[in-house]
Amino acid sequence: MRLKRIDADVVCENDEFVYVKGTEPVLRFVPKFGTRGKRKHVYALVEFKSGGIQSDVMSYEEVNHIRNMAKSKDSDSWKYHWDEMAKKTVFSSYG
User: Fold this and answer.
1) pLDDT tens digit sequence for 41-91
2) Which domain holds residue 61?
3) 58-94 b/e (C-beta count within 10 Å ≥ 16 → b)
């Protein structure tokens, strides 16, 4: 297996979140315990054994835009498991 680590999560308005792209990328996420607030972003991160890292972040609105274009937009998966479907959506953006 070429992967060292995979991670994805939903970021809410009361969480601590820093995402910087570029030559020295940063992805720092500290979820708030207790009331996290409204969903704001979703991130996905893959770390390879070779040392490379690939990550992406989508806003709540971007995820819902993709959801609304899908045939499954009204499925039970999206209705009852939005967070998990959103994580899958960001992972699939890697192409």
Assistant:
1) 999 999 999 988 899 999 999 999 999 999 999 999 999 999 999 999 998
2) 3-92
3) bebebbbebbeeeeeeeeeebeeebeebbbebbeeee
